[in-house]
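On clarity, I found the account of how folds are encoded harder to follow than it need be. Since the whole study asks how a given chain folds, the encoding of that fold should be made plain. For illustration, here is how one protein appears when written out as sequence plus structure tokens:
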Amino acid sequence: MKLTHKMPGDGTTRLRLKGRMDVAGTEAIDQAFTSQAASHKAAVIVDLSEVDFLASIGIRTLLTSAKAQEHRGGRLVLLNPQPMVESVLATAGVDTLIPIFRELDAALDDLRPVMREVVDEAGSA
């Protein structure tokens, strides 16, 4: 599993995952993912377009980070999961807890209020 991260300056943190979110894959990125997705208030977009397998441990990582963002006043959304991964998310009910978007613009629209807060807080720091 590979994790890349980008902070384009618009108030979002964008994480792209590639590979299998099975036990080995999730353990390989868990600490870095949690650090980027849950350690500070942010508007987080997790791009799942290159994740081809999702196990329960991967679901736990996504849910834990989304919940941590919620407690910090941030928000985490999922972007463009492959059909099999989206099916797993729906079957597990994750789609009712974490918003899933097919288009980046729709994800950004959903995150806009948090993005403004993050940019305002960074500007006043």
Remarks:
- Residues 3 and 17 are 5 Å apart (CA to CA).
